[in-house]
Design the sequence.
């Protein structure tokens, strides 16, 4: 096997722009949280074979190779999974997203669609999944989630976006998909308050391939990060380099990120995120089969099967807006608009406020039934400090502290780091 360069920090690995570094401070932990929470599940690390003898390459050169990769056409299978230490989201996802066939009740405006991407794709937040993916340029993509006896597909073809759930025989259709992102890569203008483009946005933001995960991770690369090339591997029959990204700072729950990069195309073939606490990977996503040829045009054709219930996005959007205005607008205005970021890099912590400036409801206040309070207590650890008291809710990657005065501290950091941040803020 060819020799490799010694470990480099990112000041040696590449000249990232000052603007990108500044943005990265705000992306972490939010982007890492998004990758972990909005995505998929894990199987044990995908089998690789051999250590191909490839020309040596520096971390700088490999990062540039990833950035320069312009793979427009591919098809294949991706095995993906997330082990956050949480129970499967299952049918709960629809409740959080306001879709998935759940009834919104009297104020919610009716039922959603079982094929709505905003709810259906959130089910990938836990468990093991196999995806069949295909792409032919920016206007044609397809992702299918394969279950034992059913299949869910999301198809973007020009101006149309279709989603189809074979289990329920329901389809979801959105027009104007091509307008959701302009030539500069910016999202559609939603200044009119509409949700036009929302399903498309979900589809684009949800990582579905190793490249999606790798792009999110590399946004966090700055001078708080160690980057090196650590050998080679073979993934899905392709020779690849292994890029290893590690936080330099203490307090992060991220142990390391390993990206297997196709030696020929620069396309990430496999992404693995392991926690600082050790054990199985939190996120592991990789191709088991990949072909960089042009997919058949028929791959992106879709006509709803006979008898399928079809929901049009424009009709559903009005119901969704009514539900969000009643259930989520207050949090967005009072919470996210007051977002602060404490620290930088991998140890950064987001601070925000709950609506009303109060902590979690309790059984003593009459807001929560006693049984529900027991469940809530079992999910979190009670902590105290200069800030008063609060509850820490933990996963293997993302932790959150909710204080009694309604502040939330969240990040890819340890419980002790959250308590320290809360103390410092008071």
Sequence:
């Amino acid at each position: 096997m060819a020799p490799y360069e010694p470990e480099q920090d990112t000041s040696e690995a590449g000249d990232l722009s000052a603007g990108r570094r500044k943005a990265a401070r705000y992306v972490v932990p939010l982007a890492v949280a998004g990758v972990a929470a909005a995505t998929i599940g894990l199987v044990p690390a995908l089998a690789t074979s051999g250590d191909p003898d490839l020309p040596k390459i520096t971390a700088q050169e490999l990062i540039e190779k990833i950035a320069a990769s312009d793979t427009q056409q591919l098809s294949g299978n991706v095995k993906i999974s997330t082990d956050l230490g949480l129970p499967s989201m299952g049918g709960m996802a629809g409740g959080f997203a306001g879709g998935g066939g759940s009834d919104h009740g009297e104020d919610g405006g009716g039922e959603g669609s079982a094929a709505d991407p905003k709810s259906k794709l959130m089910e990938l937040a836990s468990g093991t999944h196999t995806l069949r993916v295909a792409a032919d340029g920016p206007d044609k993509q397809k992702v299918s989630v394969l279950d034992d006896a059913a299949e869910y597909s999301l198809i973007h073809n020009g101006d149309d976006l279709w989603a189809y759930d074979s289990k329920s025989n329901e389809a979801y259709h959105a027009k104007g998909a091509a307008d959701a992102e302009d030539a500069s890569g910016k999202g559609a203008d939603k200044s009119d308050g509409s949700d036009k483009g929302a399903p498309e946005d979900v589809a684009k933001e949800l990582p579905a391939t190793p490249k999606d995960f790798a792009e999110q991770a590399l946004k966090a690369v700055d001078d708080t990060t160690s980057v090196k090339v650590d050998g080679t591997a073979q993934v899905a029959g392709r020779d690849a380099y292994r890029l290893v990204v590690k936080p330099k700072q203490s307090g992060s729950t991220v142990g390391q990120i390993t990206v297997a990069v196709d030696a020929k195309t620069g396309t990430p073939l496999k992404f693995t995120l392991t926690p600082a606490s050790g054990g199985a990977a939190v996120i592991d996503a990789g191709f088991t089969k990949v072909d960089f040829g042009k997919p058949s045009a028929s791959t992106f054709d879709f006509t709803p099967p006979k008898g399928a219930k079809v929901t049009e996005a424009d009709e559903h959007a009005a119901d969704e807006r009514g539900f969000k205005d009643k259930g989520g607008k207050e949090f967005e205005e009072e919470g996210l608009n007051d977002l602060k970021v404490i620290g930088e890099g991998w140890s950064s912590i987001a601070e925000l406020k709950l609506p009303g400036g109060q902590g979690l409801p309790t059984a003593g206040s009459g807001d929560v039934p006693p049984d529900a309070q027991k469940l809530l207590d079992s999910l979190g650890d009670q902590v105290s400090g200069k800030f008063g008291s609060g509850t820490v809710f933990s996963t293997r990657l993302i932790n959150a502290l909710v204080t009694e005065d309604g502040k939330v501290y969240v990040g890819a950091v340890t419980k002790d780091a959250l308590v320290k941040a809360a103390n410092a803020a008071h």
The radius of gyration is 22 Å. Confidence is low (pLDDT under 50) at residues 1-48, 89-110, 179-200, 330-335. DSSP finds twelve helices and 19 strands in the chain.
